[in-house]
Amino acid sequence: MSEQFDVIVIGAGPAGENAAGRTAAGGLRTAMVEKQLVGGECSYWGCVPSKALIRPGDVLADARRVPGAAPAVTGTVDVAAALGWRDYMVSSYSDAGQVDWVDSAGITLVRGRGRLAGPRTVEVVADDGSVRTLTASRAVVLATGTSAAVPPIDGLRDARPWDNRDVTGLKEVPRRLVVIGGGTIGVEMAQAVKRLGAESVTVLEGGPRLLAREEPFAGDAVQEAFEAEGITVRTGVKVTSAHRADDGPVRVGFGDGESVVGDEVLVAVGRRSATSDLGLETVGLEPGRPVAVDDRLLATGVEGNDWLYAVGDVNGVALLTHMGKYQARLVGDVILGKDARDKASRDVVPRVTFSDPQVAAVGLTEEQARDRGLDVRVVTTPTGGVSGTYLLGDGLGGTCQIVVDEARHVIVGATFVGAHTAELLHSATIAIVGEVPLETLWHAVPSFPTVSEVWLRLLEAYGL
Ligand SMILES: Cc1cc2nc3c(=O)[nH]c(=O)nc-3n(C[C@H](O)[C@H](O)[C@H](O)COP(=O)(O)OP(=O)(O)OC[C@H]3O[C@@H](n4cnc5c(N)ncnc54)[C@H](O)[C@@H]3O)c2cc1C
Ligand SMILES: NC(=O)c1ccc[n+]([C@@H]2O[C@H](COP(=O)([O-])OP(=O)(O)OC[C@H]3O[C@@H](n4cnc5c(N)ncnc54)[C@H](O)[C@@H]3O)[C@@H](O)[C@H]2O)c1
């Protein structure tokens, strides 16, 4: 016997929860299938615990920059308390609170591993092996997210590497940590672990710089800050081997015969879509790959498709919680019959790396804009050049930049590197989405003394 719903969502991470919430609020009978914890990677092994672990070290670094406050910082992070706070922030890895919300939203939660079994049909295998078959009259939404990719490095799997779950869930700070990959996870967690008290942290990045997807000055600024606080950064290196002798440390080989020893090795080289066991082949899609979507989040490549959607990390478009939630709200609207289109996930993605200095960026980098054939002009200003920044403490650096489309006189990309720049980002996102002409932006007056005065400097540098 199959159970009938209007909408079935597979995966209850931030994307799945928001899709299900939207369709249920619109009056559709909605089922949400989850094999592990309602809340997904973000709540328990991603955004939330990583930011909780970053915060104590950040606060101390902030205080050390302020004359008068600095002498009060006489100790180090209390690791046990920091980990306790992390545990609190992840609700001790219990999803009871989120399940209360699911119930209150009128969503039917189906526990187990979901799999497509042909068009509009989902089979769910529970932990006890029992199987339920669900059918959807309107839509199936895939929201199964990703897991950490492990590169084919000789000996790495046998060396028991850490992934994002291990590092965000750490119970003890490793004395020496080696990080493979200098992207967002590698950068954030390298600094967090160092500031929690690790003696040595080494980041091995294959590309030419840290945070390769951002403006070059962003990765360079982070590398400079890392080296100043004793984090070793090696860029442009090929990691060739990893070897752990029994329960001892791991030796990671790289480059031309060099190696570094760590008590743990964190692998942070990107993500793999969770589609290898999702029954994609039953609807003509290839398993193990991201589910490609159009601007209505409909899966492409399925014949006559008007029922299968994919939102969040699983579609590989913009691997960020807020973008998954945005796509989820859109998909809810599309399923409810509205003419909703995704206008942001490819060109106007806001992103923050919560390192110190922070790297906050939205839209296109200069290189991306030029690759698209846009006639752009780029202006920069030092983040430390405004009163709002230098009142935050001594020696704060960083660079802010806007990329201006000269044909339309609007901003298509912005990057803010420095202390506390994350909260500046939404102003740039609004300017880009709203296509606000620079001459109009000139009348958006930033308060004194705030870091937002970098806007004034940027527009002055442009010539206004
Ligand atoms: C360390 C780390 C830090 C991060 N920090 C940030 C940050 O600060 N800001 C930010 O925006 N993003 C951050 N991210 C990215 C963010 O976590 C993801 O973009 C987000 O979790 C994606 O949401 P999702 O719902 O698409 O997938 P997920 O959160 O991965 O959820 C997918 C859910 O589907 C379930 N599932 C999978 N397969 C099945 C199946 N077959 N049947 C049933 N259930 C299934 C999983 O158990 C999971 O609960 C971070 C990621 C990591 C790893
Ligand atoms: N603050 C945030 O919003 C936040 C924080 C963490 C993660 N995330 C999301 O999670 C995603 C995954 O993060 P990630 O750091 O795993 O991936 P990433 O794509 O950000 O970075 C991976 C890095 O690993 C490097 N790399 C790849 N193979 C390598 C190898 N064999 N040896 C050495 N370096 C190698 C790449 O050049 C790249 O710089 C991010 O893309 C981001 O969307 C977001």
Assign the CATH topology of the largest domain: FAD/NAD(P)-binding domain
Q: What ligands does this structure carry?
A: flavin-adenine dinucleotide, nicotinamide-adenine-dinucleotide
The named CATH superfamily of the largest domain: FAD/NAD(P)-binding domain
Top-tier CATH class of the largest domain? Alpha Beta
Query: Whole-Å distance between the termini?
Result: 69 Å
How many separate helices? 14
Short characterization:
This protein is an alpha/beta fold and 464 residues long.
Question: Your description of this structure?
Answer:
Keywords: FAD, Flavoprotein, Oxidoreductase. It holds the Pfam family Pyr_redox_2. GO terms for molecular function: oxidoreductase activity. The chain has 464 residues and is an alpha/beta fold. The chain has 3 domains: 3-39 and 95-147 and 272-335, 3-Layer(bba) Sandwich (FAD/NAD(P)-binding domain), CATH 3.50.50; 157-269, FAD/NAD(P)-binding domain (3-Layer(bba) Sandwich); 357-462, 2-Layer Sandwich (Enolase-like, domain 1), CATH 3.30.390. 29% of the residues lie in helices and 25% in strands. The chain contains 14 helices and 21 strands. Strands 1, 2, 3, 4, 5, 6 and 16 form a 7-stranded mixed sheet that branches. It has a 5-stranded antiparallel sheet with strand order 17-18-21-20-19, with helices on both faces. Strand 1 (2-10), helix 1 and strand 2 form a beta-alpha-beta unit. Helix 3 (47-64) packs across helix 4. The radius of gyration is 23 Å and the shape is globular. Nicotinamide-adenine-dinucleotide binds at residues 151, 180-186, 188, 204-207, 212, 239, 268-271, 319-320, 351-354.
